[in-house]
Design goal:
Blueprint lengths: L4 H8 L9 E15 L4 E2 L3 E2 L3 E19 L6 E6 L2 E2 L1 H13 L10 E9 L10 H20 L5 H11 L11 E4 L13 E3 L6 H4 L2 E5 L10 H7 L6 H21 L2 H20 L10 H17 L4 E3 L6 E5 L4 H12 L8 E5 L5 E2 L2
Parallel strand pairs: 5-7
Antiparallel strand pairs: 1-4, 1-14, 2-3, 4-7, 4-8, 5-6, 8-9, 10-12, 10-13, 11-12
Helix pairs in contact: 3-4, 7-8
Bound molecules: (3R)-3-hydroxy-3-methyl-5-(phosphonooxy)pentanoic acid.
Length: 361
């Protein structure tokens, strides 16, 4: 493995766009659900602990870029979200692209029209930074590939997705990914995620993620603010040690198809993430009464019926139910009969482990 890919990317960067250069590219990229959570960072978007996730299938962002040479110089962007021009998103994307321009010097010779849309419902409150940043970066790398003729490199995609949103680094790989350094996986790295599909027992490759929408409101505290509060969290050091232990144990459980250990670690991680929020200064609570009602119901159902289903949460109140294909029918019945009463307008998203980004144009 190249120990210093950044240097290589700078050397290989395309500096000049041919006159009249134009085109149309598009990629879709999925969201992911963290099993071991990334919470706390340093430097330029480097994680304070390793994290592991399943790549999802249904919850995706589709991003299409029309580009043309623009000899006046300076990066030029128009950004449309779900068909409508969105200036606030557009200016965030412009700042992001300017920040990575040393690696993509051709950008200031292009006018970009970026169209982006999500496949998950508007009103679900599902965070889309992982899918949207990874889809944007895949499309950007496709523009570059139009210039170089070389295929899109997933390590590079993960690296630049990470600079947009840490968790986005994990979305570019099929099935599962690990981001952040841990001794138990020699190729692991803080700068980009690594693929985990080949280390996954078949039971996990067919896993479902049924997301029960508890609230569709925008969250009160952003992930950015939450990460920052870890600097003064009195439990931070213990947390980072536990995340490493959980990562190392989870890697083995994923390989062995060990559902018991998987469920134990996944739930402990979700509750620990929310415990960190509750012990930050100032503290904040993103779970809601119905989140706890669903958690209690899941634990009761698992014990009473001996069905391997567990829960996790992102930085929000929604509950992700994770379970293998073989118990799909039982879990669907459980969701319909016992959980939808807690869901916002009865809303849930039927997702599962997926294959990562695909080219759409
Ligand atoms: O990628 P960010 O900065 O939005 O942080 C995401 C943090 C969690 O979703 C809570 C956990 C994770 O690892 O995805």
């Amino acid at each position: 493995m190249n120990k210093n890919p950044e240097k290589q990317w700078l050397l290989d960067a395309v500096k000049k766009v041919p006159g009249g250069f134009s085109g149309h590219v598009g990629w879709q990229s999925p969201s992911n659900i963290a099993l071991v959570k990334y919470w706390g960072k340093h430097g330029n978007q480097l994680p304070n602990n390793p994290s592991v996730s399943f790549t999802l299938k249904t919850s995706r962002t589709e991003t299409v870029i029309d580009f043309r040479e623009h000899s006046a110089g300076g990066l030029k962007i128009e950004f449309f979200f779900e068909g409508a021009e969105n200036a606030p998103f557009g200016s965030k994307i412009k700042s992001f692209l300017e920040s990575i321009q040393p690696y993509f010097p051709f950008l200031d010779q292009l006018a970009l029209n970026i169209q982006s849309k999500n496949t998950f419902p508007h009103s679900s409150g599902i965070a889309s930074s992982a899918s949207s940043m990874s889809a944007l970066v895949m499309a950007l790398l496709e523009v570059e590939s139009t210039l170089t003729g070389l295929p899109v490199d997933l390590q590079k995609a993960s690296y630049f997705s990470r600079l947009g949103s840490g968790s986005a680094s994990r979305s570019v790989f099929p099935k599962a990914a690990l981001w952040g350094q841990t001794k138990s996986l020699s190729q692991s790295d803080n700068r980009f995620a690594v693929p985990m599909a080949s280390r996954l027992h078949p039971v996990f490759a067919g896993f479902y993620d049924s997301i029960i929408i508890i609230s569709a409101e925008k969250k009160e505290v952003s992930s950015r603010a939450g990460h920052a509060l870890m600097h003064n969290n009195p439990f931070a050091d213990v947390r980072y040690q536990q995340a490493v232990q959980n990562t190392d144990r989870l890697i083995v459980a994923l390989q062995d198809g060990d559902l018991e250990t998987f469920m134990q670690i996944t739930e402990a991680e979700a509750l620990q993430l929310h415990a960190l929020m509750m012990t930050s200064e100032p503290s904040f609570v993103l779970m809601q009464p119905n989140s706890l009602a669903v958690i209690a119901a899941v634990r009761h159902f698992r014990t009473a019926h001996r069905v391997p289903v567990c829960f996790t949460l992102d930085a929000g109140p929604n509950i992700h139910l994770l379970y293998p294909q073989e118990v799909r029918d039982q879990v669907l019945q459980f969701i319909n009969e016992s959980l939808l009463r807690y869901a916002h307008e009865g809303l849930w998203i039927d997702d599962r482990v997926g294959e990562g980004p695909t080219k759409i144009a």
